[in-house]
Amino acid sequence: MTATIVPPASTTEAAPVRRTARPIPTTRLVKVELRKMFNTRSGFWMLVSIGVLSVIATGAVIIFAPESEITYETFATAIGLPMSVILPMIAILAVTGEWSQRSGLTTFTLVPSRGRVIGAKAIATLLVGLGSMAVAFAVGALGNVAGSALAGVDTVWDISLSMAPQMVLGNLVGMAIGFTLGAVLRNSAAAIVGYFVVSLVMPGILVLLAQVRSWFEDLQPWIDWNETQVELFEGATNTGKEWAMLGSTTMIWIVIPLVVGLLLMRRSEVK
Staple 99 to which of 90, 132, 186, 220, CB 3.0 to 4.6 Å? Predict the structure, then answer.
């Protein structure tokens, strides 16, 4: 009888191949956030209202404004009033959606990096703001041409190339305030109420304080973001001091609170 010697099995086996998941591109995250803005009822009607109110404001100027006021600046101002309220609301809803709509668990499971999600929300908000303002400028231009033709007056284009970017920046500042409040409060209703308090109540308090306290009179323009925003809408921010005031109010009302809000968002529990 012969014995067969079997060689011992190898104790080393090939290690399993690990598959590394590729991170989701930022462009895809931005597209998802843009879809969220259009897919929700509140976001959809907010965006629709921009076009509707732009047309209504243009028609109101054509019907009620005197012939001497049929100018491009009049149309831009009339359209800008509702936009200055609607655009910050869109920014608030964009950043609070993960908490108020209870989609945070799904979002942050698919994309664990909350910073990337918040960054995508900021980019999407910026794109919506720029697109909305482009539509508003276009509607205002059509209204200016139609209004001057109906009134039988010359078409007046009284918004210079230096004024238009300042008007856009003024709206972006308002959206940034809304985005900041959404990041700090993480609740749609609370952030909307907070925005109206900051934009309507606080400016009056600061003006009153400047009237009763002489030492605060010179300090108020460096604190009141509403005053610097109005100057942007009017295209009156021209000197270095005025830009420095804008930087001061931006730091106080946007940069510092936004940093605090982002830190809270990255560490807060999502339920």
Answer: 186
